[in-house]
Task: structure prediction
Amino acid sequence: MDSRSQGSIFISFMIIFEIISQYFIQKSVNIPTIWYKNVNLYIGLLGQLIMSSLYYLVLKSGYSLAIANTLIDGGGALGIILLGYFIFKQKISHRQLMAIFITMFGVIMLGVS
Result:
């Protein structure tokens, strides 16, 4: 497996860890407890730490900073929007839906180039 393929796998894992992290951080906000006793917050922060480690590996695999960051942010944003809609029952307006499709198009175009 070449380093570019490894980078793509790392990007996929980063998107998954970002979605998981955001899920637990959102859950932590809704728990009425003292912040340092909030396990969900620590799980979310741990996910962010794992993402940072994977980001290093993505850059080592040969992806440029701009392309890697855009793919990760775009893919993560899409996953988090779906998470918010389906799990946390958050509303999505027509304008936001149009922005999601534009973002998806941009991520797809970057991924193919």
Observations:
- The helical segments are 3-29, 39-60, 65-86, 94-112.
- The chain has four helices and no strands.
- The CA atoms of residues 58 and 87 lie 29 Å apart.
- The longest helix spans residues 3-29.
